Amino acid sequence: MSEAMGEDQESSDEDFIGGPSSVGSQLQSDSRPAGEEGAHPWEDFKGKIREQSGLDFNFDYTTLYQNAGASLNGNDEGFSGVFRLYGKWELIGRGTANKGSLIAKVENRHKLGGDVVPNALGPNLGYLGTTGASFNDAGWFLSPLYWEQFLADGRVEFVVGRVDSLDFVDISGYSGQWLRFQNGSLLVNSTIPYPDLGLGGGGGFKIGDDWWVGASIHDANGAGDEFEFLVDGSEFFKQAFVSWSPNRTQRMDRAAHFTVWHADERTGAGIDDGWGLAVSGNWLFDNGVMPFVRAGWAEGSAARADATVIAGMLYRFSNGLGELGAALGWESLSGSGLGNQKAAEFFFRWDVTPSFALTPSIQVLLDPALNPSDDTIVLGGLRARLNF
Description:
By secondary structure, this protein is mainly beta. 7% of the residues lie in helices and 48% in strands. It is built from four helices and 16 strands. The protein has a 16-stranded antiparallel β-barrel with strand order 1-2-3-4-5-6-7-8-9-10-11-12-13-14-15-16. β6 (198-207) and β7 (211-219) form a beta hairpin. The chain is globular, with a radius of gyration of 20 Å.
């Protein structure tokens, strides 16, 4: 159940361009080897399927409830659930370094109760951002559907198809909305205008034992609820990156990343072009403490913010109890007269079983840009995740 910390990340460095929420990384963090002591028969069954056909898959269901106690319009609580089926099917070169795989994910996101879904709670509080990233009511949709290929004895990796830019742009080992932070401004870099799901591709190349470089291009007008490509013509988001880790099999735990990006003008949406820089780094110490930092700067109005700094720390209990996390973020919003916003979040994830986790959390929203009366808003939340 643990995600991207310590021994869980030492098993493979195959997918070296995807982030902690990519399908490959999620499968790895949730998997228990077939025949492992205490493993459920379901895990043994999935292990046999994986060995015989190369198909690795998982289901999970996650709910999130949030309550602020007060809002601008009376809508102060959100509650929703997300069901996901995701998998990776090795179809070419199975068991070799130069394998090719089809990767896909299907999701259903739905409202469970409360006033709104958590993803929409922020504006009701006067906060320009999301307090529950990915917890909306989009219904059924196809998430990523792309081909992943390795070449040159596994030193080159590329993907092409329907991709999620959040899996490949400015990745950082501390993030992941299913098991860690929930506030969107702390999970990702708000100076980057990440495109929604859509046509894209990218690749990376390992240099020596501790460096890798890569780039990707995405349809700037992608839409998760549609399966159309380049609906407004050739308008793209592009990025290039360089990453370092002393041990690439722990690239989520001990790494530094530098990213440069450019977004074309989106004429149909009325959004100007822009470009920017981003840096991030995190380091897992042997005692289970992992400090992290992320920063970004943008030129133009393509992104929601023109500058941001995020810092925090994770602590993984050695006895398997779970994980603690704390983060503080500052962002200078790009809209005229909006000023600065700050957000802090604290969570404790209790790994009740290897397949079930409960995560109570507290968010503190400081100087919310759209709230004329409250300088501080405290938001409580409870997330539950079952994977099988």
